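Quick note —
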Amino acid sequence: MNSDLSQKFVQIYQKEATNAFFAPGRINLIGEHTDYNGGLVLPCAIEFGTTVLTAPNNNNVLRLRSLNFDEFAEIPLQPGYAKNGDSWYNFPLGVADYFIRDGHKLQGLDMLYCGDVPISSGLSSSASIEVVTAYAFNELFNAGYSKLDLVKLSKAVENNFIGLNSGIMDQFAVTFGEKDKTMAINCDTLDYDLVNANLGDYILAVINTNKPRKLVESKYNERVEECSVALTALRQQLDIDDLCDIDLAAFTQNMHLIADQTILKRARHVVEENERVKQAINVLSKNNLAEFGQLMYASHDSLRNLYEVSGVELDTIVDYALTNPNVAGARMTGAGFGGCAIALVKKDSFDTFSNEVMAYYTSKIGYAPSVYQQRIGGGVGSITVNLQENNKV
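Predicted structure written out below.
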């Protein structure tokens, strides 16, 4: 793909690219909607991702094009950018805005993006674009940001420029991912530990419902607000900053403070999910995939019944997985409202699993999902540029 991308760059810009960068997508193995509640998550980077090729120009403009979208932008480099509708280039535009407002002088740059992260699938295509752009600007213009700085900047773009009140997990996983390892991230302190992900006879199957979602237009921000209401109620008796500051026992003792039953369900999911992540870290580090799989199923049940961010498409995939003895566990991944599910499937049964889940899903939903194998990959970085052959390094 990178060789084709280099040739496309020449066709579009009439010159060769001088630099190239890659950032992966991510999946979250467990720990959903805990990130913006100061809790624990267990994500990993995947092989899908976003590549961007760049070359300087002398016109003091930022040219943003993608092979995945028709829209493109040619924007003078100046302070004060604003979001423009729902166009994909808002993500790199937001990154440029933050660099300029932070006092960094950007120079004219031609950029061509290409990604294989399914859009609106819950695999963090937006974080992949944000982080690869921030990393590229940091390298090309010697801005001096650390990787953690780039994570925080990219999250600020998502929250303040795009308008989605998400946590920091996506950008963190995309930046710091390591091959064959998951990251146990404390989203409050940003401390993290690498956890070996030896899947043994199993592989990760990613099942895209092919029901796209737009989180800004969904009830995502509503869930964030509901958690804030729950936190305010609990603070009547508890000195806490986030819902995940308490364990299940403390929550049970104080849940009478939350009068609204819907708000109570939201808070219960968050607290219990945070406990599940702790258990998952322990069993995964011991290669106990059977118990890890049961935690995945429990997580999905909670997201379906308490947090109510699943849906018939995601539930259909997990319902099928429960019937297949070659699946250790399955759950929705990402924020929900469509997107993807993941499953731990025995390697030698993947083809059968793929065919059967596609048939089952199609019979229930009326159209087919997409099923992929994914390995756990590394985080953002520079890659080689070569018109003949390009390989990630």
